[in-house]
Each structure stands twice: as C-alpha cells, then as structure tokens.
Amino acid sequence: MTTSPLRRNTLKLSLLTLILMGFVLSGCSGEGESWNGKDISGLMPGLEFELTDGQGRPVTADQFDGKIKLLYFGFTSCPDVCPTTLQKLGQATESLPTEAQDDVLTLFISVDPERDSPERLAAYVDFFGNGIVGLTGKESQLRQLAKRYRTTFGYEEPDENGNYAVSHSSAVYVFDREGKARLLIRPDLGVEEIRQDLIALAKADT
Predict the structure, then answer these.
(1) Of which family is this protein a member (predicted)?
(2) Single pTM value for the model
(3) Are the CB atoms for 105 and 63 separated by under 8 Å?
(4) pLDDT above 90 as % of the chain
(5) Residue 122: CB partners within 8 Å, gap ≥ 6?
(6) How many CB atoms lie within 10 A of CB 42?
(7) What is the pLDDT of residues 71-94, one digit of tens each?
(8) Residues of the binding site for Cu cation
(9) I need a labelling partner for 9 at 20 to 30 A (CA). Which of 19, 149, 184, 201 fits?
(10) What domains are there in the chain, each with its CATH number?
(11) What is the average per-residue pLDDT within 147-176?
(12) Residue-wise DSSP of 153-186
C-alpha cells in the first residue's frame, strides 16, 4: 500500500514538531519568567522575511518593529485548524487591556500562494477582526521562511475540481518588539493562557 503525499507531509510535520519540542525543552533552564507557552528565547532566529501583504505591497519584518508579533502559517481554504487558531488569537488579543491591544499583531502567512491572492487574503483576515495582517509570497520564499523556523508544508494532489489540501504546522511563534523569538504557542493552549503570556511579554518589553 502506498502512502499519499499529504500523509507523508503530515508525518513529516509531526516528526519535526517532536524534534522541535525536544529541542525547546532541552534548552529551557527553568529559570526566570514562567510561561504557558514554550520559552524559545535564544533557540530560534529573529523575525526576518520579505513578503507581500493583502494590498499587494512588499513587506519586510522590520516594518513591524515595536510590536509583539504572533506568526502563524496557514491558508484561507483551511477547513478547521486555521480559522480556529485565528479566532483564538483574535480573542486573546481583544481581551488584552486597551492600552496593550495595539501592541500585539498577528501575522498570518499563507503557504498557498496559488489560490490566496492578496485580495482574497485581505478579505479572509479581516473576518477575524483587527490586528491581523495577511502575508504571502512566492513558494520559494515561503519554503525558506518555513525552514528558518524548523517547519514545512506540503500540497495534496488536486481532485477533479482542482481542489487540494495543504499540510502545515499548527504552532504559533511569538516574537518580541525587537523581533526576537520568545514563545511557541501550542494548539492546546486556551485563550486565557495565551492572553496571560501576551500581557507578561508586553510588560517585560516595556
């Protein structure tokens, strides 16, 4: 029996996630700030990319300096994980103290540039509220960025209608105001736990 490309990509993502978790756990000393997410300070490279936003404009990571950034890879045709994650991040951000809400930005990076035009991406992120920026780019750029954060993505073969599934990581990477990697938010964290981490990080960065 053969294994489908999507199944192989899913297994690869699972393996990469386990490796990443082991790497993160081995790098934590247990000292300092207590987080609900995984502390990845010093274990991941800083935020760096050149992509395109929902208006078709070129965007670089340093344009978001001064804000806490939540980076999430996904695609607009995602049936469940992406909308659930974006809704959770939106709720966590909107429940922050008023003065902190403008300091947190979610960067939703589509790994499906074939279908996710800038216009479609902009309409998609707008549905989930303020404070979410949709970004995408050429597949080569997206693969380079995914590799930078030790993850990957893959495409299933299209069906007779041209529809296809995309496998991708479910992790959310959190970067501080200077673009340094600080936290990894697991899918099992709830809105309140994410909110607590964002408040603590905002205070630590002031």
Answers:
(1) Belongs to the SCO1/2 family.
(2) 0.83
(3) no
(4) 77
(5) 53, 54, 55, 134
(6) 9
(7) 999 999 999 999 999 999 999 999
(8) 78, 82, 168
(9) 184
(10) 5-204 (3.40.30.10)
(11) 94
(12) EEEPPP-TTS---EEE---EEEE-TTS-EEEEE-
